[in-house]
Amino acid sequence: MIKKLIFIFSILSLPSPSLLADTLKPFTTDGCSAFPDGTLEQQSLWADCCIKHDLAYWKGGTYAEKEQADKNLQLCVAEVGEPAIAEIMLAGVKVGGSAYYPTPYRWAYGWPYLRGYKALNENEKERVNAEISKLTIMLNTLIKELTKTSE
To answer: Could you tell me the residue ranges of all domains in the chain?
Structure first.
């Protein structure tokens, strides 16, 4: 009987799925995930393309928004002079970036797993913008400090 009560209490004390669905994790990036960030000569040649792509993936949204983020990655990498690499990367994110894979680089990775391809509502957009504002403040502060240090 006590085991049953403990089990029931533990289930009841879990956060509800609706609360978890609203949780947005802070933005993180690993650059180009399992792919190099650049060539041997220029090791971060397309890293900024991957960071922009990660931002879109963190935020999530509809399947059409994922397709656009993937296309933007392809165009960005092609624009730095690597159109063949851009095609390979596009194929990789199309296959490996599904919202339904339990990976840290899946579509909508800022939200709890299994959000899927769902448009952000106004409240979620506000939370995304608030997180981006925090990042902007942090990056501006770091840039100022690093500039002082290098002078």
So the answer is: 30-119, 121-151
